[in-house]
Design goal:
The chain has five helices and no strands. By secondary structure, the chain is an all-alpha fold. It has one domain. GO terms for molecular function: oxidoreductase activity.
């Protein structure tokens, strides 16, 4: 899952440029982090670090840490459980 998130983040920066891309990407990162929190509970890294970090390389490092070992299936299963509850 981390690869998907990072590729999406990098694509947004490439498409919009760093300044505007960061602003647009934060909205999407928020959605990803929200989904991740449903899978693992409390995030091991404060999400504000990811959302406020201005350096793309630092954001990518944080995303790798957060999504390590998490698959797309893990996220989908968590979403299905939320809908069923």
């Amino acid at each position: 899952m981390g690869t998907v998130v990072i590729e999406h983040y990098e694509a947004m920066l490439a498409h919009y440029g760093q300044t505007i891309g960061l602003r647009h990407a934060r909205k999407h990162l928020g959605w990803y982090l929200d989904g991740l929190s449903h899978v693992i509970g409390v995030l091991p890294i404060d999400s504000s670090k990811v959302m406020l970090e201005p350096q793309p390389t630092a954001v990518i490092k944080l995303l790798r840490q957060l999504f390590s070992g998490i698959s797309v299936l893990d996220i989908e299963n968590a979403q299905a459980q939320l809908k069923a509850a």
